[in-house]
Amino acid sequence: MAQNLDSVRAAALARIDRSERNFKIAFFAAALIESAFIVSFLLLADFSNRMHVLLLVSTVSCYSIVGFGLIALGAHINRGIARVLKALELTHGNVSSTATNRQ
Q1: Which of 30, 78, 84, 87 has its CA at 20 to 30 Å from residue 13's CA atom?
Q2: pLDDT tens-digit profile of 43-75?
Q3: What is the DSSP letter of 45?
Q4: What pTM value is reported for the model?
Q5: How many angstroms separate the CA atoms of 23 and 80, rounded?
């Protein structure tokens, strides 16, 4: 029974790692594309035109709000993952001690 739980834990952790890796790849690809858009806007904008300045200020403010939200969400997710991993460690200790007590 303990080995079955260990294989389930290992499979779950492998899926978590794979999904985290895919998320990071997608996140950095999107950040690269968005930064290319911002750089192209900075190169093409006419800063004597107030509308271009307003667009720049609104874009930067929106991106900063979204960025801070993503940072907060990442911290929350990491804390949740840490709790799950701690629970797995505690469960693994209880399963090991139960298995040795049964033998």
Answers
A1: 30
A2: 999 999 999 999 999 999 999 999 999 999 989
A3: -
A4: 0.61
A5: 17
Give the residue carrying structure tokens 């949740």: 80
Cα–Cα distances in angstroms (integers) from residue 64 to residues 2, 6, 51, 60, 61, in the given order: 47, 42, 20, 6, 5
CA torsion sign, 68 to 70 to 75 to 76? Answer: positive
Residue 38, both tokens:
């911002």
Q: Cα separation of 53 and 21, whole Å?
A: 37
> What is the DSSP secondary-structure string of 7-24?
HHHHHHHHHHHHHHHHHH
